[in-house]
């Protein structure tokens, strides 16, 4: 999240820059498309990290499940 925000503030490339650039040029459909891509990417990365965490520290979750 911090990388995307940094790209929005001072970047000249990257997804954050593209979102701001689309906003500034009034290309709303493209801007929302990039936001949806960011949301899907964030969800997928979160799911991946949860699976890796459960696999690496499985003893921590055995009492909760």
From TrEMBL:
The chain crosses the membrane at residues 31-50. Keywords: Membrane, Transmembrane, Transmembrane helix. This is ABC transporter permease subunit.
